[in-house]
C-alpha cells in the first residue's frame, strides 16, 4: 500500500469536506481517493470516516489520526522538494586552469543542453585533487598518465618564431638544438613548464631529455603560473610547453617535439563513492573540446605544411 498516497487522500478529503473536491486537490480521481482511504482503514483496522451521511465526517478514530497523517504528508512533500532541489544543484567541477574562458563557457553551455548544470572551478593539478578530497567539488578532471586517461592532449613547444626543422616530412622542434655550443652567442633558450604540466609523467621525461641532449639544468624551468610562463616566452626566444590550442590563443608558433610526445592525460573522478559515468557519458565530447583533447580515432597531431 502507498501509505503516503493514502494519507494524502485522507488529509485532503478531511480538509475539503468531500471526496470529489478532496480528491481533485490531492491530484487524483475520486475513485482512487476512495480506494486509498479504504485501504488505509483496512490497514488501521478502524474507520476514518462515518459512512452514514452524504458528506464524509471524521470518526473519533479519524480525528485522532488526522494530525499524524498531516505530519506524514508534510514530511513527504519536504523530502520530494529537497530531492528535486538536489537534482538541480550545479555540479561543482574542478577543471584545468589552462582552459580558456571561451572553452569553459562553451562547456557550461553544452552541459545545459544535456541537462547538467556546471559550476566550474579552474585550478592546477594538485589543487584539483585537494578540492575533490575535501568535498569542495563534486568531481574533478584529474591529471593522470596518458595511458590511464579518458582524454589526452598532445603537447609541443611554442615560441614567438619558427625554429623547427623537417623531420620525415613534418615540421618538428628538437630539444637538442637548444644546446649551447662554444660559439653560441646570447642567453640560452629555455623551455618553460606550466603548473598544469609540472607533474611527474610530463616533467620527468622532459628533464631526462634535457640531460640526454646536453642542455643546462636551467634550460627547463617550472613557472609559478601560466601567465608568468607565457610572458617569458612572449618577450624572448624561450619556448612554452603547451597544447596547440593554447599556442594559437597566444599567437605562438607551435611544433611537436622531435624526441618525444608528451601528453596531458585527464580522468573524470567524483567525490566519495559517486559514479562518474552518467556525467562522463553525456559530456565526454564537450569535455574533450574544452580540453582541446585529441580525437580518439585520430593520431592527435596535424602536420605543418
TrEMBL record:
Superkingdom in the source lineage: Bacteria
Pfam family of the protein (one): HTH_1
Keywords in alphabetical order: Transcription, Transcription regulation
GO terms of molecular function: DNA-binding transcription factor activity; transcription cis-regulatory region binding
Record bears the keyword Transcription: yes
Start and end residues of each HTH lysR-type domain: 1-59
Gene3D superfamilies, A to Z: Winged helix-like DNA-binding domain superfamily/Winged helix DNA-binding domain (1.10.10.10)
Family recorded in the similarity comment: Belongs to the LysR transcriptional regulatory family.
Name of the protein described by the UniProt record: LysR family transcriptional regulator
Source organism: Streptomyces violaceoruber
Amino acid at each position: 500500500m502507498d501509505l503516503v498516497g493514502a494519507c494524502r487522500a485522507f488529509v485532503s478529503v478531511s480538509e475539503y469536506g468531500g471526496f470529489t473536491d478532496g480528491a481533485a486537490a490531492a491530484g487524483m480521481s475520486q475513485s482512487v481517493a476512495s480506494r486509498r482511504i479504504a485501504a488505509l482503514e483496512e490497514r488501521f483496522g478502524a474507520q476514518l470516516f462515518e459512512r452514514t451521511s452524504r458528506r464524509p465526517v471524521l470518526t473519533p478514530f479519524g480525528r485522532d489520526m488526522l494530525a499524524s497523517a498531516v505530519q506524514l504528508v508534510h514530511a513527504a512533500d519536504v523530502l520530494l522538494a529537497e530531492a528535486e532541489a538536489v537534482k538541480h544543484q550545479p555540479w561543482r567541477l574542478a577543471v584545468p586552469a589552462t582552459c580558456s574562458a571561451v572553452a569553459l563557457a562553451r562547456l557550461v553551455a553544452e552541459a545545459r543542453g544535456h541537462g547538467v548544470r556546471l559550476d566550474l572551478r579552474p585550478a592546477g593539478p594538485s589543487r584539483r585533487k585537494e578540492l575533490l578530497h575535501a568535498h569542495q567539488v563534486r568531481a574533478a578532471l584529474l591529471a593522470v598518465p596518458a595511458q590511464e586517461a579518458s582524454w589526452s592532449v598532445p603537447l609541443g613547444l611554442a615560441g614567438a618564431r619558427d625554429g623547427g626543422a623537417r623531420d620525415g616530412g613534418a615540421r618538428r622542434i628538437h630539444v637538442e638544438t637548444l644546446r649551447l655550443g662554444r660559439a653560441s652567442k646570447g642567453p640560452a633558450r629555455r623551455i618553460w613548464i606550466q603548473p598544469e604540466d609540472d607533474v611527474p609523467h610530463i616533467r620527468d621525461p622532459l628533464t631526462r631529455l634535457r640531460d640526454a641532449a646536453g642542455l643546462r639544468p636551467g634550460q627547463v624551468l617550472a613557472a609559478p603560473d601560466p601567465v608568468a610562463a607565457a610572458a617569458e616566452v612572449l618577450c624572448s626566444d624561450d619556448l612554452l610547453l603547451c597544447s596547440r590550442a593554447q599556442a594559437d590563443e597566444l599567437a605562438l608558433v607551435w611544433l611537436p617535439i622531435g624526441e618525444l610526445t608528451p601528453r596531458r592525460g585527464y580522468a573524470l573522478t567524483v567525490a566519495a563513492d559517486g559514479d562518474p559515468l552518467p556525467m562522463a557519458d553525456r559530456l565526454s565530447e564537450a569535455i574533450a573540446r574544452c580540453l582541446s583533447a585529441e580525437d580518439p580515432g585520430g593520431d592527435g597531431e596535424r602536420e605543418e605544411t
